[in-house]
């Protein structure tokens, strides 16, 4: 809004013109160097993000590979655990059976089942003299004696089994306690 020829400029008109000039000066376009620096900064930020994403992808792939290997290693864990009661039943049948051809058949079946389990990585837990809480479960305790010092296994009530390096079923035992 400028003054037309023949009109004088009032004070308000001159203030508006000055304000418009200041506004125009504030909107200075960035120089080529500033634009370049901004573009380089954005590119570096994007490159860093890509590097982080690539590292995440590599970590996810590694984790998936170890999870798959672990899954393959312990794929038979549940089935093996469900077969152990069958083995226990065969053991009980052998304990109560009289010798004869039927007992021999049950014994052969039990031996074949144990062999098949062992070929898949299922092994019996060796119950030695000392109680091991990692592989055994104490169902009850009896007072310690000279024959059975404190912490020793007195009797195995149920056999324990390992599946590779994991406890499939702990050995259930009676332990001496002072």
Report on the structure:
The protein is an alpha+beta fold and 178 residues long. The chain folds into 2 domains: 29-73; 77-177, Head domain of nucleotide exchange factor GrpE (Nucleotide Exchange Factor Grpe, Chain A, domain 2, Roll), CATH 2.30.22. It is 54% helix and 17% strand. It is built from 4 helices and 6 strands. Strands 1-4-5 form a 3-stranded antiparallel beta sheet. A 3-stranded mixed beta sheet has the order 2-6-3, with no helix packed on it. A hairpin with a 2-residue loop joins strand 4 (161-163) and strand 5. Helix 3 (77-96) runs antiparallel to helix 4 (101-119). The longest helix is centred in the N-terminal third of the chain and has 42 residues, at 32-73. The protein is elongated, with a radius of gyration of 41 Å. The protein starts with 10 loop residues before the first helix and ends with a strand.
Provide tags for this entry.
178 residues; alpha+beta; Nucleotide Exchange Factor Grpe, Chain A, domain 2; 2 domains; three-stranded antiparallel sheet; three-stranded mixed sheet; 4 helices
């Amino acid at each position: 809004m400028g003054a037309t020829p023949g009109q004088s400029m009032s004070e308000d008109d001159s203030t508006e013109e000055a304000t418009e000039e200041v506004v125009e000066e504030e909107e200075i376009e960035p120089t080529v160097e500033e634009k370049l620096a901004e573009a380089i900064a954005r590119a570096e930020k994007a490159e860093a993000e890509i590097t982080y994403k690539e590292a995440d992808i590599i970590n996810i792939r590694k984790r998936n590979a170890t999870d798959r290997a672990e899954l393959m290693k312990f794929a038979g864990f549940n089935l093996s655990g469900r077969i152990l009661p069958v083995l226990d039943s065969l053991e009980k049948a052998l304990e109560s059976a009289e010798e004869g051809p039927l007992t021999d058949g049950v014994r052969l079946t039990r031996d074949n089942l144990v062999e098949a389990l062992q070929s898949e990585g299922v092994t019996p837990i060796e119950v030695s003299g000392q109680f091991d809480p990692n592989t055994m479960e104490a169902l009850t305790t009896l007072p310690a004696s000279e024959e059975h010092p404190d912490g020793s296994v007195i009797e195995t009530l149920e056999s324990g089994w390992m599946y590779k390096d994991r406890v499939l079923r702990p050995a259930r035992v009676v332990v001496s306690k002072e």
